[in-house]
Specification:
Blueprint (H helix, E strand, L loop, with lengths): L7 H14 L6 E6 L7 H5 L3 E6 L4 E5 L5 H21 L4 H13 L4 H21 L8
Antiparallel strand pairs: 1-2, 2-3
Amino acid sequence: MGFFAVSSAKEKLLRDRMEALGLHEEDIDESFIRSSGKGGQHVNKTSTCVYLRHIPTGIEVKCQKERSQTMNRYHARVLLLNKLDDLVRGRESEERKRIEKLKRQKRKRSKRAKEKMLADKHMTGMKKKLRSRIPSDEA
């Protein structure tokens, strides 16, 4: 088993990405905090929340996604890499592309596009209505 509680392929991917961005373990200040939220006594007893600080840039990340500290350590590093990637690459970063795509998807349709879509729906409804057979009064 590796350093984190994830598959060796995921860990290798993380290490490669860290290397590509020039992020070294020595540059990361890692500390553990008690998580908050649901979990009852377990949360109050264990420090599963991971806090990372990238010393050269001052970027800070806190992760309490999972109940396991090792999983949170992995997720925190992924978050830190996303933030660093955004800082280094700017508009070309994967995270920025994902956010831009979501914004485009959520953007309100123009009035013309909405009218066209509704007209198409109306036409489809009419076709379906015409398909149904009208019962005849032969009996």
